[in-house]
Predict the 3D structure of the following.
Amino acid sequence: MQRINIGELRNHIGEQVQIQGFLQTLRDQKKMQFLIVRDLTGLVQTAFWKANDLELADKISTLTAETIVKITGTVVDNPIVKLGGLEIQLETLQVEGPAESPLALDPFAETIPSIDFRLDWRYLDMRRPQVAAIFQVQTTAELAFREYWHQHQFMEIHSPKLMGSPSESGAELFEVQYFETKAYLAQSPQFYKQMAMAAGFERIFEIGPVFRADPSFTSRHMTEFTGIDSEISYIDSHEDVMVYLENMLQYVYQRVKEVHNEQINEMFGVDLVVPATPFPRIPMSQAVEILKAEGYQLPPEKKGDIDPGGERKLADWVKKNYDHDFFYLTDWPIAVRPFYHMRHADRPELTRSFDLIAGGTEIVTGAQREHRYDVLAKQALEKGLSLESIQFYLDFFRYGCPPHGGFGMGLSRLLMVMLNLPNIREAVFLFRGPNRLNP
Ligand code: ATP
């Protein structure tokens, strides 16, 4: 017999069906037994008259919570049943995966344990529908990105994560033994995205792992995360990248809302708003003035940069003045941007770059890149880089490379903002941080 999803049982009233899933609760009464069974699509009550088969009734009495069961029975419409108004009258039951008791973590306990304990027993924690929903939304969001790219003639690349030289600066770099030599785990696909521009690929994207040896314990950093990266050619400035990004995000939010609106509302208490375009744009110089006027003190060591508190303060200001949850912070000073960001011709102390702040959190950094060999080499030297170590990258710009730009976005940061989750550890399948390499 074919397995039927619990969520589809209403289409099978009066039929004999087979379901498979977790035994969430067993109510063992004098004459009847009620088994609440769960699969990814929902919960159903199955009922058994003990008198029908005392041996089977005894077996049911011994079942532990979260045991995997295969049940056959007849679906009946029963308006008294709270769970969806239907019931399966149990005929056969087979145990397919017994669960030890007590559970190391009870997904349906009244109080949710600490996040660290939950991460230790992540697969049990993920049995809660609220957790599974995060990854259902993520699946739709990723598909929507790919739909958008496909509609706009983008090519997908998969760049190597083992590198012979660092892709950014020496900081936050994981070094690994590579036979007789050393390799580095890619901190971003930056160099290879640009190589694709030099190859004439014009519009590319990559969704892949990014490694950062960042020892911090914030609610938005991981040592390994999934990056959504893209690069486009023949742009006039970073404005073209911002327009592309905001249109794509609007599409992604629209698709997620179409598929998950109710689920998101119910499980996360979020009324998903599809962002209007264009997003407000605030040059960094103005942002600093706004923060001053709002009485927010930027930490002095953050000169030219904005700390997370400042980002949140600006987000409040944008909400008040533009009624928008997204905004671009543009034209960052060269001191806080990498050497490959293009600078303004008339304001060489500023880069043609942006961050996207969503729900008060940075989720994207982007820029127009410097594609002129001499200027790029000069900027690298100014930042103290040795040209030798990045010569393979500089070579990309020797034989004709179109003007281009792009961005990098953290997938889990996006999910965290979209679903208003308090911590990035909630928004990722398995968290990796300075103190966590398991499970
Ligand atoms: P932050 O200032 O928050 O540390 P960053 O400026 O180092 O981020 P970028 O190098 O610009 O980040 O990376 C682009 C995007 O990748 C970020 O906007 C963010 O969405 C994501 N990202 C960066 N670092 C991390 C991290 N350690 N964990 C999770 N996501 C990250």
About this structure: The CA atoms of residues 39 and 294 lie 51 Å apart. The chain has two domains: 6-97, 124-427.
